[in-house]
Design brief:
310 residues; Rossmann fold; 3-stranded antiparallel β-sheet; single chain; 12 helices; alpha/beta; Dihydrodipicolinate Reductase, domain 2
Length: 310
Amino acid sequence: MELRNHYGVAWRITGVASRRLGWLTAREGFSPAKLLAADFAGAETAGDVHEWLRAAGADALFEVSSLHATTGQPAIAHIRAALEAGAHAISANKGPVVHAYRELTDLAASKGLRFLFESAVMDGVPIFSLFRETLPAIEVRGFRGVLNSTTNVVLESMEAGMTFEESVRQAQKLGVAESDPTDDIEGVDAAVKVIALANVLMHADLKLDDVSRQGIGGITAEQLREARAGGEAWKLVCSARRVEDGRVVASVAPQRLKLSDPLALVKGTSSVISFETDVFPELIITEQDPGLEATAYGLLADFLTAVRSS
């Protein structure tokens, strides 16, 4: 009701889909309360994403499938289908931004629609919209940040005396690490975030193989405690910068940082990013212990941006 009263946006949920549920539709709308109770009584079933979008009569798609770092699928196919069907595409998935940002953005523009993805990096913190809407005509020359919560938790837990395996389990218990944490530990998730930021904000054209990448597997508890005793801390640092020949050079690697560095101060599931621009030498955004609500808010904000500009 608040969206209608404050923003003039009336809404209903007419389609729900997942690997477990399949493609479910209710043209007159699902009850949000029943959805939260996993009650799908009366829903009709579609055969694929195209039939599902038609049956739902969708004006906007929220795409939140799991990341496939090397292909961006099936998220790219879902978003392409939505745009071709005349629906705005709102995503929390980094894959489509990394592998098909320009294609999907151009397709959306050709249809008078929007492809937006604020929740793809830093859980809905307004990074992409900050530069798109609030800081027009500014040049992002580079950035560095701590953007992977799993590695942050693992390194802190090891420093506190846990083994590597215990530290990974701690991250899983907190809900920030997957059952298979390989992409986090080896820096793949962080590299994907670097590419998304660089390609959108710095107009780069990076692929996963373009990012110099080193994970945290080689960092020992002894190294962590030694650094802390010396007034420093180890963090998995993501960075990108434009070099003299115009290329954007990107990396993900553990770095030993002085505790006076803002990146060294971020703890637990928090994140931080520092941008260098032609106007602001250092513009820092910090996110403190986000929850699922933060990601959901990013999707909501993108939805409002899309439908209010239609």
